[in-house]
Design brief:
about 190 residues; alpha/beta; 6 helices
Length: about 190
């Protein structure tokens, strides 16, 4: 069983913002897998079960704000007995140019508060993370940048990135992290 978690903030005001590209990838995966995310009161999340070949996938959008994603992810991994080798966290990264993907096994939080919360609550860093480049707008405060919706050409680039990230997540689930890093970290 693989657990794929996309990070973002709940609420309509955060939809289609750079900070919610992790949620967008989970929505794309649910659509591709033909499943529907449902509210889980037990885990404070929206979740769906899907199948990829013989592999069971659990797709998750934590219901807490991104900076408090750790308790949700930790509760899911413990309750469902998910090995950290079977966990993929998908998140935004302002230090990567818009449209770029970076898949890694382990490593620090890189200042990303959602990822830092997960590391803190799991007590480990050794799980896969797929960073989606959202870039930075010149002369704009980072908080304002991540919470302002994509527009025009930037939106089209972000949508293409989300589709490619969904491909990467499915490839990782089917073929493992090393093969996925070789294919998508170009």
């Amino acid at each position: 069983m693989k657990l794929i978690v996309g990070l973002g903030n709940p609420g309509k005001e955060y939809e289609h913002t750079p900070h919610n590209v992790g949620f967008d990838v989970i929505d794309e995966l649910a659509q591709r897998c033909g499943c529907r995310l449902r509210r889980s009161f037990r885990f404070q999340a929206r979740a769906a079960r899907a199948k990829l070949g013989g592999e069971q996938l659990i797709l998750v959008k934590p219901g807490s704000y991104m900076n408090r994603s750790g308790p949700v992810v930790a509760a899911l991994t413990r309750s469902l007995n998910i090995s950290l080798n079977d966990l993929l966290v998908i998140l935004d990264d302002a230090d990567l140019p818009l449209g770029r993907l970076r898949l890694r096994m382990g490593g620090g939080g890189g200042g990303h508060k959602g990822l830092l919360s997960i590391i803190e609550h799991l007590g480990q860093e050794q799980f896969a993370r797929l960073r989606l480049g959202i870039g930075r707008r010149e002369g704009q405060d980072l908080v304002a940048h991540v919470l302002k919706p994509f527009t025009g050409e930037l939106r089209a680039t972000a949508q293409a990135m989300v589709a490619r990230a969904a491909e990467a997540a499915l490839f990782l689930a089917a073929h493992g992290a090393q093969a996925a890093m070789n294919k998508f970290n170009t």
